[in-house]
Amino acid sequence: MAGKSSERLWFDCGLLPSGWATGLEITIAGGAIEKISTGVTPPSGAVRGRTVLPGLPNLHSHAFQRAMSGLTEVRGKDQDSFWSWRSLLYRFASRIGPEDIHAITAMAYAEMLEAGFTRVCEFHYLHNAPDGQRYDDPAEMAGQIVRAAEETGIGLTLLPVFYAHSGFGGQPPADGQKRFLSDLEGFAGLLEDVGQHTVNQHDFVLGIAPHSLRAVTPGELKTLLLMDKAGPVHIHIAEQVKEVEDCLAWSGARPVEWLLHNAPVDGRWCLVHATHTNDREIHRIAKSGAVVGLCPVTEANLGDGIFDGRAFVSYGGHYGVGTDSNVSINAADELRMLEYSQRLKGLSRNAMTGAGYASTGRSLFEHALAGGGRAAGIPAGLAPGNPADFVAINAGALPEAEDGGDALLDAWVFRGKSQAISEVWRRGERVVCGGQHVQRPAIEARYKAALRRLLA
Ligand SMILES: [Zn+2]
Fold it and tell me: Is the pLDDT of residue 85 over 80?
């Protein structure tokens, strides 16, 4: 979607990089913020009573998994775990075609915008046709994701996934993984082919995602890093205890320990989950400048475990949040789950409140904004030159915090009221109005038809 040129919007209150300000006039040109003035009296007739917040980046999504939401919550014969969930996922993924991925992804992205996310990092691995053959256009499925992003307006950081093995040390892939597989040459081609689908994208970012140390050998990892020397690099790491045990058996090192020792991990990197890490690893990630991609709702849903967020924040580490499996899509839910899991783990309150913060809601929000932007490869926040991506909360939606400020963020995160966000702008275009994506009816109808096909 193209941004309208030279539009002005007024807000009673807003969160700028310098802190809270009142009487905001935001001038938008060419989809970017041109100017922000404060202390302005709005013209008569301007909408009043809105607080503006920067849109959050969602740093980790597998959009197609949205269609499984609520379908895996039935107890099986044996103990259910990440691994039993993954077998269900593989069976479901085997049925999804290009039309389905477009319909599901558009629904997920519309919901992300409604929930306060204005950009998504899509960790995309469903590349091949159901029989494992490449589509005529190897970027067919990636192209459907780009189409869904264009249709909904969400900013896209696409992370095509390299996946070649089923376990550490280059083990041969399993049958259920055949839709994900590439070799290095095919992957280089895929990165190129994505380009023909992104000509209409304004601030598209392309990165790479070596799937995990299970799926990529050390030699492959090295070659992948030569294919993209500037974009974001995302990797799943240390999500499961079994993964740590297998990595130790293979290399004598823990996954994060191995990665930090063998790859040039820096601010371009996003280590997704990093759940099972010891204090030394957490300290070293913080020092590297890499972002830890926390997906608290999915990690809870899958019974993964709890990252030591309190220690990481105390070391000055960067983090953001992602909706990962998209079992629920809500920025406030992710931030609340993150804080609550730390409270449950550490038996104390206000665990993720960084140095210099009084408000936990504000600390969570600003960390997720900065870390999410870093992981997405875009500048985030309400500042001139940045994409005009922001959300409005109407006075009255959170009556305990009518005066705005930090209390509003605390209420938004902890009160758990859905629909507090009334409007969302992306590149200056209003894509959510009255809490609903402007194209929701058509997107939802197509999504329901896709679900009927897939679950038939
Ligand atoms: Zn993931």
Answer: no
Task: Record the tokens describing residue 101, joined without a space.
Answer: 């991925």
Domain stops at, among 342, 357, 376 = 376
> Does the annotation count 234 as an active-site position?
no
User: Is residue 12 annotated as a catalytic residue, yes or no?
Assistant: no
Count the domains in the chain.
2
Choose among 411, 278, 283, 256: nearest CA to 335. 411
Q: What is the pTM of this model?
A: 0.96
Q: How far is the CA of 123 from the centre of ligand 1 (A)?
A: 7
**Mean pLDDT, rounded, for 170-192:** 94
Going by C-beta distance under 8 Å and a sequence separation of 6 or more, which residues neighbour residue 40? 10, 23, 24, 25
Q: Are 398 and 390 in contact (CB under 8 A)?
A: no
Residue 149 CA to residue 134 CA, distance in Å, equals 23
43: domain range? 7-54+383-437
Tokens describing residue 2: 């193209």
Q: How many CA atoms lie within 13 A of 305 on its CB side?
A: 16
pLDDT at 372 over 80: yes
pLDDT over 80 at 103, yes or no:
yes
Question: How far does the centroid of ligand 1 lie from the alpha carbon of residue 107, in Å?
Answer: 18
Tell me: do 169 and 318 sit in the same domain.
Answer: yes
**Burial (CB count within 10 angstroms: exposed 0-12, middle 13-18, buried 19+), residue 30:** middle
Residues 105, 197, single domain; the answer is: yes
CA distances from 76 to 73, 81, 295, 301 (A): 9, 10, 24, 15
| CATH code, 426 | 2.30.40.10
| Whether 142 and 27 share a structural domain | no
Q: Residue 77: what residue type?
A: K
- Do 44 and 136 have their domain in common? no
Q: How far apart are CA 438 and CA 356, in angstroms?
A: 39
Same-domain pairing of 27 and 171: no
Query: How far, in Å, is the centroid of ligand 1 from the Cα of 299?
Result: 10
> Of these residues, 12, 100, 203, 324, which one is catalytic?
324
CATH of the domain at 121: 3.20.20.140
